[in-house]
Sequence to fold (387 residues):
Amino acid sequence: MAKGYRPVSRDQGFLLPPDMREWLGGDHPVWLVIAVVEGHLDTSAFHARRRTGGAGSAGYDPDMLVTVLVWAYAHGVRSSREIERLCRTDVAFRVICAGNLPDHSTVARFRAEFPQGVAGFFAQVLGLCARLGMGRLGVVALDGMKIAASASKAANRTEDTLARLAREAVAAHAAADAAEDELFGAGRRGDEVPPGAWSPRRRDERIRAALAGLEAERKAAEAAEQARAEAYRVRRAAGDRAGCPPASVAVEMAEENLAQVRARQQAQVEDWHARNAASLAATGHPLRGCPPVPADRHCRVRQAEAKLAATRARAAEAGRKAAEREAARTGPGPVRNITDPDSRLMPVRGGGFIQGYNAQNVTSSDGLVIATSLFNLLCEQGLEMPM
Fold:
């Protein structure tokens, strides 16, 4: 029987240096692409314009950058930012980079520096890979038949077409980089974690802040309910029309009412018996009339008891329905986002939720925006007056 669980130590360093050759099998096509680019094709054009030996940090090997682009284009990747992300997360890209992880700016500059060279080189790689096969030769038995492939006849390409596709891939890469630079800003990937959120220390602070926010919201709701109950008590003590008591104290108020009605009736019974005893002692005659009804049999006491029973039944039914709603609830309940604690899960048109805000705008009849604000309230009914 197992004694426990295997430890999950994400901060544990490797005892021995890792070997990239163990990350992917020898038959993985990335090794073929690396061998083709570095050992069989002419990459001198990419080295000719590179400067070495000067001041500053060492540059990236052009062969490595070319191989990254070839592998990316072969997989339909046309974005420098996506290439940067894959170099950090995809094993094949990491093998090509050999631990040197270029950012998207480096990839974009390299592509822009050799627009024709990259396109022509990629065409060579496509042509070579189309003709290059891998297999073992030995004793073989030959037979054949024609079967349909999961491919279209229209997908056949000539060498000229492959060269055109390579140029189009480079052009698409340039267009994607330009669009993403405009969208995210130069030098930004667009998927950066908000400042401070990546830090384990700041993440703990955000988690604590989220828990504190939920606790504060719960206490605020309890305080508001207590305030409503206290206001009801004040109105009732002053003799004003108090209306129905808040649900949280309805049973308690009904119990207090029953105790007060019973105490008043019991006081009347005790007062009559005291006066009757005094009359017997003084005159020898009892008081005229019937004695008061005992408290437990008085009509007002019974009415208060019935009201208490009905209030308890309503409270029990409300508790049962609340439990049913909680059991049937499919959502997570009250949540807080540790990246943006002020945001909330917002239902959107067509179904589903987004993490965000409720944006409200006020415009004039001629389309002028005269007021705008963000709320983290789900319901819009209470936003008309603030806006």
